[in-house]
Amino acid sequence: MPQPLSFEALSSSQYVLSSAENFVLYVLLEAVARGKGGGRLPLNLGVVIDRSGSMYDEQRLEFVVEAVKFLADSLAPEDKVSIVAFADTAKVIVAPDQAHNRDSIRRAVDEIDLLDIGGGTQMALGMRAAIDEVKKNLDASRLNRVLVLTDGQTYEETACIDLVQQNREQISFSTMGVGVEFNEKLLMRLAQDSNAKYHFIGNPAEIPNIFEDELLGLRSVTVRNGRIDVTLSQGVQIRESFRASPEIYAMGSPLVGEDRKISYDIGDLETGIPGSVLLTLVLPPRNPGNVRILQSSFHYEVPGTGEAQVDCELAIEYTLDRTLTSKRNGRVMSLVDQVSIAKLQAKAEEELKAGNVDRATRLLGNAIQGTQRLGLSKATQALSGLLDQVKKTQTLQTKAAKTTLLQAQAVVRKTQMLDPEALKDFGKPE
Fold it and tell me: S-S: 351 plus which of 277, 313, 326, 356, CB 3.0-4.6 Å?
C-alpha cells in the first residue's frame, strides 16, 4: 500500500567546506499529504463568537451570523457542531444535537443580539464552554477543533492560554481577529500552540469567506497528529528552529537532550499543503568525506488505518572545493529568506514600540528589499504600506497604522510558496 504522504530532509547545500571552523547549514524537514487517506473526516467543532458591544460596529455581528448560517448549510450528517456566544458571560446557543436542525441554528444566531450576557469580553468563558461541548463527542476519528472569533481585548488572557495548553493534545484552536483592537499576539499564540490557524480579518465583510476557507481546510485534512522526530549526529547543534509552512513562526529555543533527540509537533496535514520545519544547524569541523548529520522520522495517524511513520536521513559531503560549497538549494534558501523577512518585520515592530523609529524604518526597508528580490509582490506591498504609515505617524497607535501592521503580519507569516500561482509548480523537479 503506498504511503499517504511524502517526507524528506533537504539541506541548503550538499557540500560543506572542510576547515577548522564551524559551518552553518539550513535544513528543511517537510511532510506533504498526497493521497486521500481514509476519506473526509467528520467534524467536531465548537464555534465561539464574541458578542461584546464592539461587535455591532461595522456590521461585524451581521457578517458572523451570515458565516454561521453558511457553516450550518455545509454540515455533513456525521458532523457535530456547537455554537457559543460570549461577552461578560458565555452561553451555548446551539448544542451538538441541534446542529442538523438548520431552522434552529438560523433562529439562534438571528437572535444572538437578544442574549442577556453583558457587553464585555470574557473570551476564556466562551472557550471553556465550547471545549465542554466538543468533549461530549470527542473522538480520535473526528477533527476536534474550536474556532474563536473576537474583535477586542479579553480579560484573563492567561486563562485562555492555559485552556489551550490543557487541551491541545485532543483539540486544536483556530483564532480569528476582527478589526484592530484585539490582541494579535494572544490569538497567534493560541493557534500556534495547538497547530491550528490564525486569521486577521481587516474587513468584516471577509468573515464569511474566512469561515469558508477554514471549513475547506478541515475538509482537506487526511493525516492527523503529525510529529517530526530528529536525532542529531554527534557535534551537530541547532541554533534556531522555525515552522516554515503553511505559516512562518519561531518554535522556541530547541532543547536537545543527551540522546541528541528533539521533537516538533506539526498537527494535522491538509492534502497538498506542506507541514515543515526549518532548522539552522551548526556543524563541527571535519575532514573531507561523506557524513550523516541527522536522522528523522515523521509520525502520523490515518483514521481507520492507525499510527505510522516515515523515516529519512540527511548526509552531506565535507570538501576542500569551495566551488562546490557555493551551490545552494533554491527552495530551501527561498524559505530561509522568507523566515529572515518575517524576523525583520517582527524586530521592526519591537523597535517601534520601544520608540526607536529610525531603527524600525531601516529594518522594514531591509525587509522590503528582501521581498522585492524574491518577487513577493503581496509582501512588498504590505510592508511598504507599513513603512509609509510608520514614517507618517511615528507610532503604531493610529487605526491606520495598526491595520497596516496586522495586514503585514498576516502576509509575511504566510509561506509565499503556497500562493495559488506558486502551487502550480509545487513538486516539480528543480
Answer: 356
Distance of CA 84 to the CA centre of its chain: 24
Return the CATH number of the domain spanning residue range 5-38+223-329: 2.60.40.3670
Residue 228 near residue 263 (C-beta atoms within 8 A): yes
Burial of 287 (0-12, 13-18, 19+ CB in 10 A): exposed
Judge if 5-38+223-329 and 43-221 fold alike in CATH terms.
no
pTM tops 0.85: yes
Q: Where are the domains of the chain?
A: 5-38+223-329, 43-221, 331-418
User: What does the pLDDT look like over 353-411, one tens digit per residue?
Assistant: 898 999 999 999 999 999 999 999 999 999 999 999 989 888 777 788 888 999 999 99
From residue 23, alpha-carbon distances to 30, 324, 328 in Å are 22, 14, 14
Of 125, 146, 124, 122, the C-alpha closest to 134 is 146
Q: What is d(CA 100, CA 358) in angstroms, rounded to the nearest whole number?
A: 56
394 Rama class: left (phi>0) / alpha (psi -120 to 50) / beta: left
